[in-house]
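the two lines:
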Amino acid sequence: MIEQFLVNLGTGLKIAFQPDSLLFVLIGGAWGILGGALPGISATVTMTLLLPFTYGMRPEQALMMLAASYTGSAFGGAIPAVLIRTPGIPSALLTVVEGHQLHLQGRSGKAIGMALIGGSVGQWISIIAMMVFVIPLSEIGVKFSHPEIFALMVLGLTACASLTGKSVIKGLMAATFGVALGTIGSDPISGIPRFNFELREMAFGLEIIPVVIGMLALSEVLRASRQVVPWRATTGKFSAALPTWSEIRGCTRAILIASGLGFVVGALPGAGGSPAAFVSYQEAKRWSKHPEKFGKGSIEGVAAVETANNAVIGGELVPTLGLGVPGSVTTAVLLAALIIHGIEPGPMLLRRNPELVFSLFAGLMTAVFFVLVMGLLTIRPSIYITTLSRPAVLAVTTVLVTVGTYSLNWQVFDILVAWVFGVVGYFMYTYGFSPASAVLGVVLGSLLESNLRRGLGLSYGDPLVFLSRPATAIILLVAVFSAVYPLVADRLAKRRTPATAVEREVPEELSVRARH
Amino acid sequence: MDKRADLAIAVFLLGLSAFYFYTARQVPFRTQLVEPLGPGGVPQLLAVLLGLGATALIVKRMARWRSEPGWLVEPEGESDDPGHPVSLVRVALVSALILVYVLSLPQLGFGVSTPIFMAAALFAWGVRDWRQLVGVSLSTTVLVYLLFAFVLKVRFPEAVLLEALLRR
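prediction for all of em together
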């Protein structure tokens, strides 16, 4: 087994260190830093915009580029959080609390630098932990049959759907809608046409990329059109001075705690960066020698939050690669990339395509290094982020969406699909139906249906097969719990007095949207 | 959020789920393959789930109708930034501009449609400085074309109408 591991790792490293692979990782990382640094462009949207351009790549390179983008975004989100008091990604909210205070004290470079260093350490640790856990998890998953895989797909949908947005019912409906979209085209088992309304372009169903890019990116452009809100101008004195070795050493405990917490929380499907960041922040404050500095510009606070934000990446990839259950909507985009390249995600991924998984491991480690170097070079020019015109960014995003979607099949129909789902996504955002949940449904829908039907086929139509098999029953129970728990927790929270200690530290005017 | 709009959307979704169910019934339930559920089974199940969800939303909204004064309630979707007016006209305008841009691409080509779209969209988003309108539009068009046509080897739509006009 160790021998096989080393052989696979060698193959992965060989693929990851090819010149074109390195170039794609570099581009992905740079793109991610840029996207993460622009408020309103989340890590998921940044990755989604790259999706069409990975269509012609080898699957390993596509995955490495997208993962590198995620890595870059996780750091990039700290830049506007520090400089203009606006998180570039939602989980950077607490970086605003501490980092912006540091910026006002003339210590911007220390805040951004610590975000970069803590984030890089967090990612490396979580990627190594991911390698350790994915393999045994996949070995368990390989023993799963169709009922278990169906249950895993249900868990993936309910876990994420129930955590995005304020209404669990709407989140689950959005996920169901996404699965329903996946039924358009030819039936996955018999091949007969369904819901194509006699349109030639829909004979094989809707292409995933236009639907995803419309719902996540174009809808964001339309949503941003509701108001003309210029990005806040930066105030305070900018300084590019990096943290000293003594300051970095002082944050070691916070970084190690946050790395572990970030990885564990990230591995819970649907949890994401925000809970990891909050928990790590609280623990860092509890164990800090200077807890009185928290809330007033604590470099340890920045280290804890950003380390956790970055460490979730490795955690999220554990269920994504090991079982085919996306750890978050962002990793669902990675699964979409796999499907586009004709690779079925699931427990068999590691067994059937070991070179893909191991090259992703190696590519991620490379990406972290590249982002570290690029990040250090970015600190000084980062002040110019605030001078970018928001309308210009939106216009460029729209053009990139258009060109990227057209490049798939050279069909205007695909761009029209993206436009339709951009409008649908806008209404979904506005009325509380999470487009992210719908995208999950689109990505997982076909697998869910085919495994449900094959599972029933195994039992000659007896639906009790999903309850009589212990693993299936347990997974479905967890899925039901993940759907019901937020409803119950919400009712209990309304009866309690509001505002925990952490929430009190977050200024009221900062409203963070649970945006993917 | 306007609770009337929220209710209307829930009713629309109930209607959509009914339509989906009806259309799913047209799909053959059985095929030559031995399989309990068939191609029409899962869509019908999904339609029922969507219908149940829509019904729950309608019941929930109606139950709270009287207890929530006025038409506006706490938004369940994305919150707007306080202190800045919301313009649905701008959303509709930008959406229409994007549609026109997409439809004009195969007729006028990337080089003509894109700068026109960008200038119009920037104007809709509040940019009034003509240098920014012209500069951003043209520079983006050129840079995107160079990057995608020559580096990424992406094929652009042919300007059918423009070419026909130029041939005359």
